[in-house]
Amino acid sequence: MCPVPCNQASSAFCITALWRLVVCSFPALERLAGGIKGSLPGLASQIWRCISAGDGRVLDGASSALADTRARRQQNLGELRSTIEEWARSMHRLGAAERAQVVVRRDRLCVALKAGRQSDLPKGSVTLATSSTGATFYMDPAPTVPLNNAEAVLAAQEREEVARILAHLSAAVADNAARIWQVLDAVTALDICSARGRHAVWCGGVRLRFLLPEVAAQNGSVQVLQPPPRAVDFTVPAGVRVVTVTGPNTGGKTASLKALGLAALMPKAGLFLPLEPTPGKGPPTPFDAPAVAWFDMVLADVGDGQSLQQSLSTFSGHIRRVRAILAALTRRSLVLLDEAGSGTDPAEGAALASALLAALADRAALTLATTHHASLKDLAANDSRFCNAGVEFDLASLRPTYRLIWGSVGASNALAVAEGLGFDPLVVAEARKVCLHFLACIVLSACPAHCSHLCLGRASSYTVYVLSAGVPHILLEGQPCEHQSRITQLDIRALVYFPG
């Protein structure tokens, strides 16, 4: 917004006001905007004297010849209109015309007459055109012929004078092109600084420090849509190269990936990040400002990559983008993968994703990958370069909290989410039965062969529970089994309780 009221809102006036009110108060801005000083005031005033700021029309005062031509044309046009309108009314009264209407044909004002009534006009009238049916003739009455001729001449003279003025101004701009580019660069730099500052005020942003190996952005939030924002903590332990983010659909996994990507890119563009102050410390100072890692590139495979035009399925779209990521990344790159290994057979997809994450652990600075594959969640147990993070999900409201719980594994909660989104309750109930039966088969298959007497009967001495979203559900009941420790976690969390 212009800092001072301007009738024409001309850039010359706005630049001068900006220089006086703002730039000169800050030495750094004054150095940055050095190209504005003495920014061709003569050329600017000449342009604004000739060109209307509102619609870009060449003004009458651009030259005396243009002003004279337009004045004579206006006078002639007024006389022409009044005369042709009187002829149109006269022809309508005589029944020679359907209505008292003035039309334009071949850039001349004329009247529309019925076929065969041309003789109602005086001698010397000119037929300009006929309708497609031949029922209407468009006539220039003899008294208006010289007025129409004068309009054509004056219009041509006006066009020629406007072209001459624009050519003169264009030549003046071309003569000062180098200087104009300097002014444009300086104004652009100031505009960018202003936008950064206004964004920082809007989002409550703070300046960050850059670190090379670690990521530590406490309580970072990125306002992508409408406020208020939700804070997300990113504190990746030293030495960790791959973080697998797990949790339910609609739980905020992809939002966390996007938040980190923006948090890595925004400081490189000179933007402040909206970070909440550390409790008890107040707003951070430049000496204890939060830190983010410096990445040379942020490479992302987020969203569905299918394309009908390119004959790409969801899986092939992901593969194509990941292939490009592998070709471009360096040891200083951040890689973001959404739903790694999805869109194909779960077993093969999990295997491919596992191998991909292992390769990225060697070749990228940091990789964040969202997944529902259980095998990817187990990578952290065998390799210190891997770390798990689960998104917190409020089961009561079925809404994400956008909190990352580092070191934890988030449950998918697919049935709870489907139920919360209004899915058919009968279908959800049947799905729960199928799911429990499927999990029972997993547990049974994990037991030794001589424990095959385990069943789903309710007469029991022990009970196997499955923890689903923190809530225990009875999975199996049967006789005691000395090999109950062989019931492995696999894709579930199973606890064996012996009553009494």
Automatic annotation (TrEMBL):
<keyword id="KW-0547">Nucleotide-binding</keyword>
<protein>
    <submittedName>
        <fullName>P-loop containing nucleoside triphosphate hydrolase protein</fullName>
    </submittedName>
</protein>
<dbReference type="InterPro" id="IPR000432">
    <property type="entry name" value="DNA_mismatch_repair_MutS_C"/>
</dbReference>
<keyword id="KW-0067">ATP-binding</keyword>
<dbReference type="InterPro" id="IPR036187">
    <property type="entry name" value="DNA_mismatch_repair_MutS_sf"/>
</dbReference>
<feature type="domain" description="DNA mismatch repair proteins mutS family">
    <location>
        <begin position="240"/>
        <end position="436"/>
    </location>
</feature>
<feature type="signal peptide">
    <location>
        <begin position="1"/>
        <end position="24"/>
    </location>
</feature>
<dbReference type="GO" id="GO:0004519">
    <property type="term" value="F:endonuclease activity"/>
</dbReference>
<dbReference type="GO" id="GO:0030983">
    <property type="term" value="F:mismatched DNA binding"/>
</dbReference>
<keyword id="KW-0732">Signal</keyword>
<keyword id="KW-0378">Hydrolase</keyword>
<dbReference type="Pfam" id="PF00488">
    <property type="entry name" value="MutS_V"/>
</dbReference>
<dbReference type="GO" id="GO:0016787">
    <property type="term" value="F:hydrolase activity"/>
</dbReference>
<dbReference type="GO" id="GO:0140664">
    <property type="term" value="F:ATP-dependent DNA damage sensor activity"/>
</dbReference>
<keyword id="KW-0238">DNA-binding</keyword>
<dbReference type="GO" id="GO:0006298">
    <property type="term" value="P:mismatch repair"/>
</dbReference>
<dbReference type="InterPro" id="IPR027417">
    <property type="entry name" value="P-loop_NTPase"/>
</dbReference>
<dbReference type="InterPro" id="IPR045076">
    <property type="entry name" value="MutS"/>
</dbReference>
<dbReference type="GO" id="GO:0005524">
    <property type="term" value="F:ATP binding"/>
</dbReference>
